[in-house]
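Re: [help] complex structure
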Amino acid sequence: MDLHAPLSVMEWLPIASSAMGLLCAAAVVVLSLSPKTVRAALGLSGAVLGFGLSAVLLGAAGRFMGEREMFQAMAAVDPSQRDQLLAVGTAESAHPLSLGAIGGLPLVLLAVAAMVVLFPRVQAAARTGSAR
Amino acid sequence: MNESVASFWVEGGWWMYPIALLGCAMLPATLVAFVVGVTSKKASLLMPLAIGLLCVGLLPAVLGEAGFLQGMSAVEKAIAFANPVDQATIRAAARGEALTTLILGLWMSLAPTFGGSVLLGLALMRRAGAPSPESVRAPT
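Output below.
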Protein backbone atom coordinates (compact mmCIF):
# COMPACT_ATOMS: atom_id res chain seq x y z
CA MET A 1 0.00 0.00 0.00
CA ASP A 2 1.37 3.42 -0.95
CA LEU A 3 1.19 5.40 2.30
CA HIS A 4 1.69 8.72 0.50
CA ALA A 5 -1.34 8.29 -1.76
CA PRO A 6 -4.44 10.20 -0.57
CA LEU A 7 -7.00 7.92 1.06
CA SER A 8 -10.49 7.66 -0.38
CA VAL A 9 -13.70 8.12 1.62
CA MET A 10 -14.20 4.37 1.79
CA GLU A 11 -10.75 4.04 3.34
CA TRP A 12 -11.35 6.84 5.83
CA LEU A 13 -14.65 5.42 7.13
CA PRO A 14 -13.20 2.18 8.61
CA ILE A 15 -10.32 4.23 10.04
CA ALA A 16 -12.77 6.67 11.66
CA SER A 17 -14.86 3.82 13.07
CA SER A 18 -11.73 2.12 14.44
CA ALA A 19 -10.55 5.40 15.98
CA MET A 20 -13.89 5.87 17.74
CA GLY A 21 -13.72 2.27 18.93
CA LEU A 22 -10.18 2.81 20.22
CA LEU A 23 -11.33 5.86 22.21
CA CYS A 24 -14.15 3.80 23.74
CA ALA A 25 -11.74 0.93 24.40
CA ALA A 26 -9.40 3.30 26.26
CA ALA A 27 -12.37 4.51 28.30
CA VAL A 28 -13.33 0.87 29.06
CA VAL A 29 -9.81 0.14 30.31
CA VAL A 30 -9.73 3.28 32.48
CA LEU A 31 -13.23 2.70 33.88
CA SER A 32 -12.55 -0.95 34.63
CA LEU A 33 -9.69 0.00 36.97
CA SER A 34 -12.03 1.24 39.66
CA PRO A 35 -14.62 -1.14 41.21
CA LYS A 36 -17.09 1.74 41.35
CA THR A 37 -17.05 2.37 37.58
CA VAL A 38 -16.62 -1.20 36.36
CA ARG A 39 -20.34 -1.39 35.52
CA ALA A 40 -20.05 1.60 33.16
CA ALA A 41 -17.02 -0.09 31.56
CA LEU A 42 -19.13 -3.19 30.89
CA GLY A 43 -21.82 -1.05 29.26
CA LEU A 44 -19.28 0.80 27.14
CA SER A 45 -17.75 -2.46 25.87
CA GLY A 46 -20.92 -2.81 23.73
CA ALA A 47 -19.98 0.41 21.93
CA VAL A 48 -16.46 -0.95 21.35
CA LEU A 49 -18.01 -4.08 19.82
CA GLY A 50 -20.29 -1.91 17.67
CA PHE A 51 -17.45 0.26 16.34
CA GLY A 52 -15.31 -2.82 15.66
CA LEU A 53 -18.06 -4.58 13.72
CA SER A 54 -18.89 -1.34 11.87
CA ALA A 55 -15.25 -0.95 10.81
CA VAL A 56 -15.23 -4.46 9.33
CA LEU A 57 -18.61 -3.94 7.60
CA LEU A 58 -17.53 -0.56 6.20
CA GLY A 59 -14.28 -2.10 5.00
CA ALA A 60 -16.15 -4.91 3.25
CA ALA A 61 -18.55 -2.42 1.65
CA GLY A 62 -15.59 -0.32 0.47
CA ARG A 63 -13.86 -3.34 -1.01
CA PHE A 64 -16.93 -4.40 -2.99
CA MET A 65 -17.56 -0.83 -4.16
CA GLY A 66 -13.98 -0.71 -5.43
CA GLU A 67 -14.37 -4.08 -7.14
CA ARG A 68 -17.62 -2.95 -8.74
CA GLU A 69 -15.91 0.08 -10.28
CA MET A 70 -13.00 -2.09 -11.39
CA PHE A 71 -15.19 -4.65 -13.16
CA GLN A 72 -17.22 -1.91 -14.84
CA ALA A 73 -13.98 -0.34 -16.07
CA MET A 74 -12.69 -3.74 -17.21
CA ALA A 75 -15.66 -4.15 -19.51
CA ALA A 76 -14.76 -0.88 -21.22
CA VAL A 77 -10.96 -1.19 -21.62
CA ASP A 78 -8.89 -2.84 -24.30
CA PRO A 79 -8.74 -6.67 -23.71
CA SER A 80 -4.94 -6.57 -23.67
CA GLN A 81 -4.99 -4.28 -20.61
CA ARG A 82 -7.51 -6.34 -18.64
CA ASP A 83 -5.04 -8.49 -16.73
CA GLN A 84 -3.08 -5.44 -15.61
CA LEU A 85 -6.26 -3.63 -14.57
CA LEU A 86 -7.48 -6.72 -12.71
CA ALA A 87 -4.23 -7.01 -10.76
CA VAL A 88 -4.01 -3.33 -9.83
CA GLY A 89 -7.77 -3.02 -9.17
CA THR A 90 -7.93 -6.09 -6.94
CA ALA A 91 -4.99 -4.87 -4.88
CA GLU A 92 -6.38 -1.35 -4.52
CA SER A 93 -9.95 -2.42 -3.77
CA ALA A 94 -8.67 -4.58 -0.91
CA HIS A 95 -7.34 -1.55 1.01
CA PRO A 96 -10.62 -0.62 2.80
CA LEU A 97 -11.20 -4.20 3.95
CA SER A 98 -7.64 -4.60 5.20
CA LEU A 99 -7.90 -1.27 7.06
CA GLY A 100 -11.28 -2.31 8.51
CA ALA A 101 -9.98 -5.73 9.54
CA ILE A 102 -6.77 -4.36 11.07
CA GLY A 103 -8.70 -1.75 13.07
CA GLY A 104 -11.94 -3.62 13.73
CA LEU A 105 -11.03 -7.21 14.59
CA PRO A 106 -8.81 -6.34 17.60
CA LEU A 107 -11.63 -4.11 18.86
CA VAL A 108 -14.13 -6.97 18.55
CA LEU A 109 -11.78 -9.31 20.44
CA LEU A 110 -11.14 -6.66 23.09
CA ALA A 111 -14.87 -6.01 23.54
CA VAL A 112 -15.67 -9.72 23.90
CA ALA A 113 -12.78 -10.15 26.36
CA ALA A 114 -13.98 -7.12 28.34
CA MET A 115 -17.52 -8.52 28.48
CA VAL A 116 -16.27 -11.94 29.65
CA VAL A 117 -13.91 -10.49 32.26
CA LEU A 118 -16.05 -7.62 33.54
CA PHE A 119 -19.41 -9.41 33.82
CA PRO A 120 -18.44 -11.53 36.87
CA ARG A 121 -16.69 -8.54 38.41
CA VAL A 122 -19.83 -6.41 38.11
CA GLN A 123 -21.93 -9.25 39.53
CA ALA A 124 -19.58 -9.55 42.47
CA ALA A 125 -19.59 -5.78 42.98
CA ALA A 126 -23.41 -5.71 42.80
CA ARG A 127 -23.57 -8.30 45.58
CA THR A 128 -21.40 -6.13 47.81
CA GLY A 129 -23.25 -3.00 46.59
CA SER A 130 -20.25 -1.00 45.39
CA ALA A 131 -20.85 -0.87 41.61
CA ARG A 132 -22.43 2.12 39.89
CA MET B 1 -25.77 12.08 -8.30
CA ASN B 2 -29.45 11.12 -8.76
CA GLU B 3 -28.53 9.38 -12.01
CA SER B 4 -25.83 7.33 -10.29
CA VAL B 5 -28.23 6.33 -7.49
CA ALA B 6 -30.84 5.36 -10.06
CA SER B 7 -28.37 3.31 -12.10
CA PHE B 8 -27.09 1.68 -8.89
CA TRP B 9 -30.68 0.70 -8.05
CA VAL B 10 -31.44 -0.60 -11.55
CA GLU B 11 -28.23 -2.66 -11.69
CA GLY B 12 -29.19 -4.52 -8.52
CA GLY B 13 -32.44 -5.82 -10.00
CA TRP B 14 -35.38 -7.06 -7.92
CA TRP B 15 -33.11 -8.10 -5.02
CA MET B 16 -32.75 -4.42 -4.13
CA TYR B 17 -36.39 -4.22 -2.98
CA PRO B 18 -36.28 -6.86 -0.19
CA ILE B 19 -32.84 -5.67 0.92
CA ALA B 20 -33.91 -2.02 1.06
CA LEU B 21 -37.25 -2.88 2.71
CA LEU B 22 -35.55 -5.00 5.37
CA GLY B 23 -32.83 -2.39 5.88
CA CYS B 24 -35.35 0.44 6.18
CA ALA B 25 -37.44 -1.62 8.60
CA MET B 26 -34.33 -2.22 10.70
CA LEU B 27 -33.79 1.50 11.38
CA PRO B 28 -37.05 2.08 13.32
CA ALA B 29 -36.72 -1.42 14.80
CA THR B 30 -33.32 -0.42 16.22
CA LEU B 31 -34.79 2.78 17.67
CA VAL B 32 -37.80 0.93 19.15
CA ALA B 33 -35.52 -1.73 20.63
CA PHE B 34 -33.46 1.01 22.27
CA VAL B 35 -36.49 2.83 23.67
CA VAL B 36 -38.15 -0.38 24.90
CA GLY B 37 -34.91 -1.80 26.27
CA VAL B 38 -33.74 1.32 28.06
CA THR B 39 -37.10 2.38 29.50
CA SER B 40 -38.24 -1.11 30.51
CA LYS B 41 -37.59 -2.05 34.13
CA LYS B 42 -37.07 -5.72 33.22
CA ALA B 43 -33.34 -6.39 32.94
CA SER B 44 -34.04 -9.72 31.25
CA LEU B 45 -35.83 -8.04 28.30
CA LEU B 46 -32.72 -6.27 26.95
CA MET B 47 -30.65 -9.39 26.23
CA PRO B 48 -33.04 -11.08 23.75
CA LEU B 49 -33.69 -7.69 22.13
CA ALA B 50 -29.95 -7.12 21.64
CA ILE B 51 -29.24 -10.62 20.33
CA GLY B 52 -32.30 -10.49 18.07
CA LEU B 53 -31.24 -7.13 16.67
CA LEU B 54 -27.71 -8.40 16.00
CA CYS B 55 -29.00 -11.52 14.22
CA VAL B 56 -31.73 -9.81 12.18
CA GLY B 57 -29.38 -6.90 11.47
CA LEU B 58 -27.08 -9.17 9.49
CA LEU B 59 -29.97 -10.36 7.29
CA PRO B 60 -29.67 -7.55 4.69
CA ALA B 61 -25.99 -8.50 4.17
CA VAL B 62 -26.96 -12.17 3.80
CA LEU B 63 -29.70 -11.22 1.32
CA GLY B 64 -27.16 -9.11 -0.57
CA GLU B 65 -24.79 -12.08 -0.79
CA ALA B 66 -27.67 -14.25 -2.03
CA GLY B 67 -28.49 -11.63 -4.68
CA PHE B 68 -24.85 -11.52 -5.79
CA LEU B 69 -24.61 -15.31 -6.07
CA GLN B 70 -27.92 -15.57 -7.91
CA GLY B 71 -26.82 -12.81 -10.30
CA MET B 72 -23.50 -14.52 -11.02
CA SER B 73 -25.24 -17.86 -11.52
CA ALA B 74 -27.64 -16.29 -14.06
CA VAL B 75 -24.69 -14.65 -15.86
CA GLU B 76 -22.73 -17.90 -16.10
CA LYS B 77 -25.78 -19.66 -17.56
CA ALA B 78 -26.37 -16.90 -20.10
CA ILE B 79 -22.71 -16.53 -21.02
CA ALA B 80 -22.59 -20.10 -22.36
CA PHE B 81 -24.57 -18.90 -25.39
CA ALA B 82 -22.53 -15.74 -25.97
CA ASN B 83 -19.79 -15.23 -28.52
CA PRO B 84 -16.51 -16.55 -26.93
CA VAL B 85 -14.76 -13.29 -27.85
CA ASP B 86 -17.26 -11.26 -25.79
CA GLN B 87 -17.47 -13.61 -22.81
CA ALA B 88 -14.74 -11.92 -20.74
CA THR B 89 -16.29 -8.46 -21.30
CA ILE B 90 -19.78 -9.68 -20.36
CA ARG B 91 -18.50 -11.50 -17.28
CA ALA B 92 -16.60 -8.43 -16.03
CA ALA B 93 -19.55 -6.08 -16.52
CA ALA B 94 -21.97 -8.57 -14.95
CA ARG B 95 -19.75 -9.14 -11.94
CA GLY B 96 -19.67 -5.39 -11.34
CA GLU B 97 -23.47 -5.21 -11.55
CA ALA B 98 -24.02 -8.27 -9.34
CA LEU B 99 -21.93 -6.73 -6.55
CA THR B 100 -24.56 -3.97 -6.19
CA THR B 101 -26.88 -6.05 -3.98
CA LEU B 102 -24.01 -7.03 -1.69
CA ILE B 103 -22.93 -3.40 -1.29
CA LEU B 104 -26.48 -2.27 -0.42
CA GLY B 105 -26.89 -5.18 2.01
CA LEU B 106 -23.68 -4.31 3.85
CA TRP B 107 -24.70 -0.65 4.15
CA MET B 108 -28.14 -1.64 5.42
CA SER B 109 -26.63 -3.97 8.04
CA LEU B 110 -24.53 -1.22 9.55
CA ALA B 111 -27.09 0.54 11.78
CA PRO B 112 -28.74 -2.55 13.35
CA THR B 113 -25.37 -4.22 13.94
CA PHE B 114 -24.05 -1.15 15.73
CA GLY B 115 -27.32 -0.70 17.65
CA GLY B 116 -27.44 -4.36 18.63
CA SER B 117 -23.87 -4.25 19.90
CA VAL B 118 -24.49 -1.17 22.03
CA LEU B 119 -27.71 -2.73 23.34
CA LEU B 120 -25.78 -5.91 24.19
CA GLY B 121 -23.40 -3.87 26.35
CA LEU B 122 -26.35 -2.22 28.12
CA ALA B 123 -28.03 -5.61 28.58
CA LEU B 124 -24.92 -7.12 30.16
CA MET B 125 -24.53 -4.05 32.37
CA ARG B 126 -28.10 -4.31 33.62
CA ARG B 127 -28.06 -8.08 33.97
CA ALA B 128 -24.84 -8.08 35.96
CA GLY B 129 -26.06 -5.28 38.19
CA ALA B 130 -29.49 -6.84 38.79
CA PRO B 131 -29.94 -8.88 41.98
CA SER B 132 -29.91 -12.64 41.43
CA PRO B 133 -33.25 -14.52 41.75
CA GLU B 134 -31.92 -16.35 44.80
CA SER B 135 -31.21 -13.14 46.66
CA VAL B 136 -34.62 -11.65 45.74
CA ARG B 137 -36.56 -14.73 46.86
CA ALA B 138 -38.26 -14.16 50.21
CA PRO B 139 -36.77 -16.07 53.11
CA THR B 140 -38.85 -19.05 54.21
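Chain A touches chain B at residues 39-40, 42-51, 53-54, 57-58, 60-61, 64-65, 67-72, 74-75, 79, 82, 111, 115, 118-120, 122-123, 126-127, 131 (CB under 8 Å).
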